[in-house]
Amino acid sequence: MSTGALVRRATRGSTALRGGRVRRLTPYQVFGLLFWLLMTLAYWRVPPCCEAGVHAAAVARLRAGLTDTGASPYVVAQGALARLTGLTGWQLLRVCGPLNLLVLLTGLGRLVRVLTPRPWAPVLALAFLSVLWGTRPAWGGGSLALLPLTGSLGYPSAFALGLTLWAWALTGARARDLRRVRYVGPSGLRSLSGYAGLGLLYGTVALVDPVTGVGAAAGAVAFVAGWQRGWRGAVWGRWALLCTVAAAVLACGTHARVLPSSPYGSYADPGGWAGQCWLALLGLPALWLRARRAGGAAAGRPGRRGPTPDGPMPDGPMPDGPGRHGPVRHGPGRHGPGRPTAWPAAWRDPLVLLFALECLVLVCGRLAGLLGLVLLAPQCALAVELAAERPWCRWRRALGWAAAGAVCLGFLAAQAGAVVPRSVDPVGFVQPPRWPSYDWAARHIGPGEPVVTDAYYAVRLLPGYGIDLADGHDHRPRVRWLLLTRQERLPAEAVVVDWSRRTGEVLARLTRTGDMSPVPLVTRSVTR
Asked: Strand 450-452 vs strand 468-470: parallel, antiparallel, or unpaired?
């Protein structure tokens, strides 16, 4: 035997059986990375549209050094980054999209892991939240649906939604911790700083997007009321501190923004949500089963304190006592006197309470933009139930087949166009809107110069280049530019500078700006 033979170094401890330190990726990490890559490419493929011009314009104003008292911390950070790097508002939207998606995916994974340790539950939750919506396309932020994500990833609402998922996950983890908190000494300072930071996180969500902030506060109440037990001084102190800090910052963030309409229906449209979100209601049976299980467990085991993660649970009746024979037939919460006490205890499940509170806020506050947070609870409940270990009972198999059919229907009817390009589309899926670009006009117009136009797309996209919009009857001497549609006519004092081959719009420069006539009164036709 050769003396130069290789000798394998022995490993000790927990790595001895595996031959070294090997960290295996979880299913959610694998599928989450693939989802991040796919949606990033889809987001970069779709041209900016809808509210993108409003957000890019806010960044352009801050980049130019103008103050905006109504800007959120998210927009202020974008403006500072734009001044530091020299990026434009449009470029920052492209950069922030993948970053917001990363916050969304990590927040969703952390939240589902707080709900259950089942490894495939986050994967199913991601699939349901991105596809299980409806058969009609929708547009706008506030959800993880594929089609809206292709246009709203760079919006503040996407970042606020990701922070909300993280805040709920941290709140749920702390609500499950039943250890008494000491407010004296280094450990007490760490505890106080942790809850103060969590309260600031909720306040940041409210400042970035006030509507999402209201839903985030309702979710915090759901997790605290559903899982926190033993209302002693330490518990009251920690959550009173959180609520005080969150309410203080929430009061500073109650500002409203008016955004233009979108070409498709929006999740914020109260009249059209039924056709756009009805498939997500498939998770209601899962919520009902969780409520029934929580109520029965609380009534059947009154001595149990605190929640435990969802693990593999038997589908049949629980055995009577420590033995394995005989189902529970007359226990509390099932029949007789114990029945009325079961359903009030069903609210100990945070997803059930989350769905109820979000529906209450949606109806009472008329905040239709919270529809994505309202439907998050049944979608996550469905993912947790279908991630249980096999064998499954009949109702779970039926629910699984129904969910699979609904996912296929929702993907093919409303969401496939987000990831299938138009050039390779074999069926003709509903594609994201492709608005025209105004780079051809921005090359001639300087930042801050006013333009007179009433074109639908130009009014919504030109401010993103740092260009001001002026009214057609504005006689300011600084007005030098007109952007006319095919139907409008060129004034006698204007000269054509450039035009778009796609839309037929014409950019003209006024030669006499002091006595400019209103655009609707001109009579000379456009010549090219």
From this structure: parallel
